[in-house]
Structure formats: structure tokens, C-alpha cells
Design goal:
With 21 residues, the chain is an all-alpha fold. The protein has 1 helix and no strands.
């Protein structure tokens, strides 16, 4: 539950950061 949420949030953050750059 928490692990999945953490991973999903991290992936979204990484994608967002990559797209922003």
C-alpha cells in the first residue's frame, strides 16, 4: 500500500521533472 504509493509518486515526480527540463 504505502510502498506502491511511494513508488508511483516517485515515478510521477521523475517523469514530471524530466518533462519540465
Amino acid at each position: 500500500m504505502l510502498v506502491t504509493d511511494c513508488i508511483v509518486r516517485r515515478e510521477i515526480f521523475t517523469t514530471f521533472s524530466s518533462r519540465l527540463r
